[in-house]
Specification:
Length: 152
């Protein structure tokens, strides 16, 4: 496990990795959508530290918002994913419709996330979200390593 995965990620780093603004991330932390699990905020000026799982949740939420899902619906879907589904996000897809959301696992299982009905589906493959986040983290680590090497 790399140091950044053990130590977690700062708010500004999470923003660079996921494409959300700091204002969004702060709002999501204050409203409990994604709270930093390594170091939560403890008053004004404290530094939040997010785990890899937290960053992945932020990336999933951002992907849902980019695909046209409302923040309220994204919140519902993420809360269901967090539950006891034991979902391997890298091998799953979210199937979203106007009436509900289903988690499609690569073994063919479908899990109704919001107990919805029929509708036009929008599929968000989560493997792409996981792969994109992993690549972005590696690029961030390389850039940081190069900066440290140049300043030494």
């Amino acid at each position: 496990m790399t140091d950044s995965l053990k130590l977690g990620f700062s708010g500004p780093t999470v923003c660079r990795l996921t494409g959300v603004t700091y204002r969004q991330l702060d709002y999501w932390a204050r409203t409990g959508l994604v709270t930093p699990s390594i170091t939560p905020a403890r008053g004004s000026g404290s530094k939040r530290r997010y785990s890899y799982s937290d960053v992945l949740e932020v990336k999933v939420i951002k992907s849902l918002l980019n695909s046209g899902v409302s923040l309220a619906r994204a919140r519902q879907a993420v809360e269901c994913l967090r539950g006891s589904l034991g979902a391997d996000l890298a091998s799953s897809s979210l199937v979203l419709s106007d009436a509900g959301s289903v988690l499609a696992r690569d073994d063919g299982d479908l899990v109704d996330l919001l107990r919805g009905g029929q509708g036009v589906f929008n599929i968000v493959p989560l493997a792409n979200v996981v792969a994109e986040l992993t690549t972005t983290i590696r690029q961030e680590q390389l850039a940081t390593s190069e900066k440290e090497h140049r300043s030494a």
